[in-house]
Amino acid sequence: MRNGSTTKTKVAIAGLGAIGCEVAKALDAGIDGLELAAVSAANIDKHRAWLGKLGRTPATLPISELADAADIVIECAPSRLVRDIVAPVVSRGKTAVVLSVGALLQNEDLVELARKHGGQIVVPTGALIGLDAMTAAAVGTIHSVQMITRKPVKGLAGAPYLVENNIDIEDIKEPLKIFDGTAREAAKGFPANLNVAVALSLAGIGADRTKVQIWADPTVTRNTHRIEVDSDSARFSMGIENIPSENPKTGKITALSVIACLRKLRAPLRIGT
To answer: 80-86 long-range contacts, Cβ below 8 Å, gap at least 24?
Structure first.
């Protein structure tokens, strides 16, 4: 990123779903020191109308060109595209903000690529709570971490784990535990749902030691996460109930978390680790 109060850092967004659109509008409305330079989407034509109404229309580019157009690239795309988006960014010594965190477990070499070229991968807090406490506890020794997730049925429909194991949740009338395993396994089986579990594991004791339960719950309307942590510095519990966005797999707070992350970049007062 460039220094100097009069120089704006260029930002690009890969993916214009519920999150990408909100972040684009926030950047256009004004985030100190940043400007929206470019966007990319699978079907850019359906977005041209509202993009044209922005104060400054960003360039529309294929994801392969975003790294050259911006200093920061925000990944808001399907997890299968994470490598194509992030690798060019960090190999140029730039910053990639990653929301499909689960994909990092299948592309762990991206971290080494960033280290080698002076780039950075940033994972926003997203739909979770307490990552500051987790990263602080991880400086010491964390003994155990467990997360219990409850989601409305429509927020879990079509997950690969359900399909592969022939688990039908469409007509359930009461809460059903559909998964009990590690964060790594959860990320593979529920790639659109459990990025929070991977973020939690990366902040703490890793994807193979972080335990996860997933419940399909027809009695809830919010995506709910409950986390229990035991460490040598503190024992703490965290809970959050996220209102789903227009995409039922994603909470509204996720987009707000990205916006808050961007605001921190140039903020004269920065709160939190």
So the answer is: 81/14, 81/15, 82/107, 83/107, 83/110, 85/14, 86/110, 86/121
Tens-digit pLDDT profile for residues 97-123: 999 999 999 999 999 999 999 999 999
Q: What is the residue whose two structure tokens read 């009695």?
A: 219
Residue from 270, 269, 258, 272 nearest 24 by CA: 258
- Is residue 220 over pLDDT 50? yes
Kindly report the CATH class assigned to 131-250.
Answer: alpha beta
The verdict on whether 225 is a catalytic residue reads yes
According to CATH, the superfamily of the domain at 9-126+253-264 is NAD(P)-binding Rossmann-like Domain (3.40.50.720)
The reported pTM is 0.90
Coil, helix or strand at residue 35: strand
Do the beta carbons of residue 156 and residue 172 sit within 8 Å? no
Pairing state between β 223-231 and 235-242 = antiparallel
Query: CA distances (Å), 170 to each of 72, 193, 232, in order?
Result: 40, 17, 42
Q: Look-up: residue for tokens 């004004």?
A: 30
Distances in whole angstroms, Cα of residue 245 to Cα of each of 17, 21, 248, 250, 256: 10, 12, 6, 6, 11
Confidence of residue 3 (pLDDT cuts 50, 70, 90): very low
For the chain, give every domain's residue range.
9-126+253-264, 131-250
- Nearest-angstrom CA–CA distance, 107 and 140: 27
Q: Residue 94 class from Cβ within 10 Å (0-12 exposed, 13-18 middle, 19+ buried)? A: buried
Q: Distance (Å, rounded) from C-alpha 198 to C-alpha 204?
A: 10
Task: Report residue 229 as tokens.
Answer: 């942590």
- The Cα–Cα gap between 19 and 256 comes to 8
